[in-house]
Design brief:
Strand order of the largest sheet: 3-4-2-5-6-1-7
CATH superfamily of the largest domain: P-loop containing nucleotide triphosphate hydrolases
Low-confidence stretches: 1-5, 521-529
Distance between the termini: 77 Å
Strand content: 5-15%
Oligomer: single chain
Number of strands: 17
Helix content: 40-55%
Number of helices: 34
Mean pLDDT: 83
CATH architecture of the largest domain: 3-Layer(aba) Sandwich
Length: 727
């Protein structure tokens, strides 16, 4: 059933309550209603969903929407049901449904109630589903997240490549493919694979002017993230990490530091993931720390920041993930932490994969490196990647434009690059060109005799990073083109050939150097800062006074390393005091009040500006072994049996117990000590420790006699002493 274009705005108002279309929406809807194949490339937040949702409401039959994620389907179905009084208007068909739920969905489709049926590609390949869909009227197929079809896309899904034969088996109906990211190469791949080369293509600009892009060196990342989030209180944000382990770690660190954050990754239970997503949408939490499993189709318009703890594997992935910020057109900050060591890690992950897949991955990574290390406008680099020319020199909304680096006239250097590419017959990629220019006797260079060229070694006075920057900026200037089909072969454009004949002024900026940054944020948060000597002396004096009042040795109250950290971090509340190493919740409550009171007074009197935004509360290491030890000592299992069960020597078990007790956890190991050390010897030890100046086991052993006690005995009794008196 076709609808006149003039009536479309009325249909939009009727079904969705919107007064007018955005961008190309009206033309796209009209094209679908006319029965034509349609290809939509529209950035996140551009309103892709309306392009198939509105035609589905108008046309006869049910529209089949192929969608890659269960969470995305649920989100879309809930959204559609919100516009209608009839729940059956939209359904999803995937592995999360039981048999009775599946039957209910099919009944609604057969009865004509269902206008939109969301299907996972895996579900669509099942013969029973194909047979069912052949028996009901289908209005059209919508392939959402269509970039999943292409191995050059950032979320390649092999099941997507089997869609065309299945669609043909179900019936001859129009197809609309939609994606938020597609380079010219991916666009062609999608159209070929879906057999829609004649489709009408609608391509919106990829420029998200409201998004601010920044790349930071990867140092003390947890500290930097906490500082950033604290500077944006109450705002919604997403933090992406490449590994599940890092997701868990960062989420725990954030929540430990008073930030409402939860982890999200594919290893979590489906219900937990759904609950976390709902909490984020309902603003019960501010931050989600996630792998890329999170975010596709999340309809939250006011995400104010997206942080990448790790650089993504491709620029498309980066664009898609950062695109979840500022979908309402308002502020969106995109901060990425980058170290070249991370790229090396990603390259290692690719080893063992088919050669063609490795080459694809390598090219995608090179594009990402180029974006991360460039000193030119980041917006220009992103848009160039998607085949769009950004005319402005300065976007005024990325770190490189706000803090521009010095440039120089690079006519000579660019000419060297273009001449080299011409000399190698335009058949080689960037790394080969750089090797020739810098005079590197690499195997491939020698194999092709390029070490005999006149240009060989012409740029040996500058490093590879410099020449890589020149090539990247020549690409941006339109002097070169890159043939992605042949894994990044560089070719001269007509403009480049003209430049070689008559070089003109071209400003070149050297790229940033990220080679010496950390690849992980495992540095000590205290950063080796010296303790405030005056405050440290006052804290020691206070400790001595409290120890005397409590009739315990000073080290039972707080050990020296804890006092040193207090004199670095200046905690002025009990919550902040728990941040200090060796101060558990119990110790903070038992001894903390006078210490934070003294520190607060000291800070005020000395007008100290506390860098609390840089103070990261360390996460208690709840390793599996520690949890195991706490549980099994509670059950009074012999330490010898525990050591045997874990395949560890007893001394290692004792070391772990010492760590647990030092952090303020109380352990009762009397049941074991009473078996191996008699009561009199225990009493001698306690008498010694009550007046000892240090809790050193070696000093105790020396004083009490090595014939009377073993090293293990002394350490066990010290654990008992600290647990009973200190914790």
């Amino acid at each position: 059933m076709l609808v006149e274009e003039t009536a479309l705005s009325g249909q939009l108002k009727k079904y969705f309550g919107f007064d007018k279309f955005k961008g190309d929406q009206e033309a796209i809807v009209s094209n679908v209603l006319s029965g034509n194949d349609t290809f939509v490339i529209m950035p996140t937040g551009g309103g892709k969903s309306i392009c198939y949702q509105l035609p589905s409401m108008i046309m006869e039959g049910t529209a089949i929407v192929v969608s890659p994620l269960i969470a995305l389907m649920k989100n879309q179905v809930d959204s559609m049901r919100g516009f209608s009084n009839e729940d059956g208007i939209a359904h999803f068909l995937n592995s999360s449904l039981n048999k009775s739920e599946m039957a209910a969905v099919r009944n609604d489709v057969r009865s004509g109630k269902t206008k939109l049926l969301y299907v996972a590609p895996e579900s669509l390949t099942k013969e029973e589903n194909v047979e069912f869909l052949r028996s009901v009227p289908i209005s059209f197929f919508a392939i959402d997240e269509a970039h999943c079809i292409s191995e050059w896309g950032h979320d390649f899904r092999p099941e997507y490549r089997r869609l065309r034969p299945i669609i043909d088996a179900i019936g001859k109906v129009p197809v609309i493919a939609l994606t938020a990211t597609a380079t010219p190469k991916v666009q062609l791949d999608i159209q070929k694979n879906l057999g829609m080369m004649e489709a009408t293509v609608f391509k919106a600009s990829f420029n998200r002017a409201n998004l601010y892009y920044e790349v930071r060196p990867k140092n003390d990342v947890a500290r930097e993230i906490i500082k950033f989030v604290r500077q944006h209180p109450g705002k919604s944000g997403i933090i992406y990490c490449l590994s599940r382990k890092k997701v868990e770690e960062i989420a725990l660190t954030l929540s430990t530091n008073g930030i409402r954050a939860l982890p999200y990754h594919a290893g979590l239970d489906a219900q937990v993931r759904a609950d976390t997503q709902d909490k984020f949408l309902m603003e019960e939490i501010d931050v989600i720390v996630a792998t890329i499993a999170f975010g596709m189709g999340i309809d939250k318009p006011d995400v104010r920041f997206v942080i990448h703890h790790d650089i993504p594997k491709s620029l498309e992935g980066y664009y898609q993930e950062t695109g979840r910020a500022g979908r309402d057109g308002r502020e969106g900050k995109c901060v990425t932490f980058y170290s070249y060591k991370d790229i090396e890690k990603l390259e290692k992950f690719m080893k063992g994969k088919p050669v063609a897949e490795q080459e694809v991955g390598k090219q995608l990574l090179l594009e990402t490196v180029g974006f991360a290390e460039t000193c030119v406008c980041r917006r220009k680099v992103i848009l160039n990647y998607f085949g769009e020319v950004y005319q402005q020199e300065d976007c005024a909304n990325c770190d490189n434009c706000i803090h521009p680096k010095k440039s120089f006239d690079g006519r000579e250097e660019v000419s060297t690059v273009l001449e080299t590419i011409k000399n190698v017959k335009e058949k080689f990629a960037m790394d080969h060109i750089v090797n020739v220019i810098t005079g590197k006797h690499e195997n491939n260079v020698k194999l092709h005799g390029h070490d005999n060229l006149e240009v060989f070694g012409e740029g040996s006075d500058r490093d590879q990073r410099f020449w890589t920057a020149v090539i990247r900026q020549s690409l941006l200037a339109g002097l070169l083109s890159k043939d992605i089909e042949t894994y990044g072969t560089l070719k001269l454009t007509e403009k480049g050939k003209g430049f070689l004949k008559l070089p003109t002024v071209i400003h070149i900026i050297e790229d940033n150097d990220y080679s010496n940054t950390e690849s992980d944020d495992e540095s000590d948060f205290s950063g080796g800062v010296a303790a405030d000597p005056e405050l440290f002396a006052q804290l020691k004096e206070l400790r001595k006074k409290i120890a005397k009042q409590r009739n315990v040795p000073p080290f039972v109250v707080f050990q020296d390393p804890s006092l040193e950290e207090m004199a670095i971090q200046y905690p002025i509340t009990l919550d902040e005091l728990k941040n200090v190493a060796g101060v558990g919740a119990g110790k903070a409550v038992k001894y903390g009040a006078p210490f934070v009171s003294l520190i607060e007074k000291y800070v005020e009197e000395h007008d100290i500006e506390r860098p609390m935004d840089l103070v990261v509360k360390s996460v208690v290491n709840k390793s599996a072994l520690k949890v195991y030890l706490i549980q099994n000592t509670d059950r009074k299992i012999s330490l010898d049996d525990i050591a045997k069960a874990k395949g560890l020597p007893l001394k290692d078990i004792v070391t772990e117990l010492e760590t647990i007790v030092s952090s303020g956890t109380r352990l009762d190991i009397n049941y074991y000590i009473n078996e191996v050390i008699d009561a009199d010897r225990q009493q001698d030890f306690f008498d010694y420790f009550k007046s000892a100046e240090t809790d050193s086991p070696d000093a105790a052993l020396s004083e009490l006699g090595e014939n009377e006690y073993s090293s293990i005995d002394v350490r066990l009794l010290r654990i008992k002493f600290l647990s009973e008196l200190g914790n």
